[in-house]
Amino acid sequence: MSAHVIPIPRPTLHEQVAQRLREMLVESRIAPGAKLNERELCEVLQVSRTPLREAIKMLAAEGLVELLPNRGAVAIELTEADVLHTFEVMAGLEAQSGELAAARITEAELAEIQAMHYEMLAAFTRRDLPAYYRLNSAIHGAINAAAKNPVLSATYRQVNARLQALRFKSNQDGEKWSAAVKEHEAMVRALEARDGVAMRAVLLTHLANKRDVVVAQLRSRQAAREGAQA
């Protein structure tokens, strides 16, 4: 009996474009509140308008852009209340993911998280924020995956999409960045010990600290805008 090879589906073009746009939004190459200029984006991404528009629809469904009548797509700009409400939900999702992961993680999954953690530390040492953030995000995603709860994972991805750009910016303060790295070290230790209580606690602390940094940055930007308008 010959083995039947099942092809692994590759991301479609519009899914690849959506991922590139997510990165541009996270790294503020498209600023919050800015209009997504289709002509310029087609040139930058080297694609036609059809996959670009499909990608924008995906991002709108994720809450990363807003489709406005007569204006097209605009990068979402969260208010302080939006941020507080979203972090409130995200903290619960992260804590639940961590607690379940501590009980259900396999040795292979743990080894992968440990490897990404060491790569992340190297990016931190280089002060390579984009690389650090990609690894950081991958670690949080791997913890969520290790919880092995598809409903939790789907909800996590949807809520986390709204916060990605703000979480990226929250590591631009050196002292806060160092504190976040120590919290990640505590996460790895808790996973290694299969300690769900410790994992829940460190993730709640981690998200609360992220929230406080993000809110402080939002307030600072708002004060600067008001000062410029005065």
Short description:
The protein is mainly alpha-helical. Helices cover about 75% and strands about 5% of the residues. The protein has 9 helices and 2 strands, in the order αααββαααααα.
Describe the structure.
- This protein is mainly α and 230 residues long.
- It contains nine helices and two strands.
- Strands 1-2 form a two-stranded antiparallel ribbon.
- A hairpin with a 3-residue loop joins β1 and β2.
- 30% of the residues are buried.
- The model has no long low-confidence stretch (mean pLDDT 88).
Task: Please specify the SSE layout and strand pairing.
Blueprint: H1 13-26, H2 38-45, H3 49-62, E1 65-68, E2 72-75, H4 80-104, H5 107-126, H6 129-146, H7 150-169, H8 174-192, H9 196-229
Antiparallel strand pairs: 1-2
Helix pairs in contact: 1-3, 4-6, 4-7, 4-9, 5-6, 5-8, 6-7, 8-9
What distinguishing features does this structure have?
230 residues, mainly alpha, Four Helix Bundle (Hemerythrin (Met), subunit A), two-stranded antiparallel sheet, 3% strand
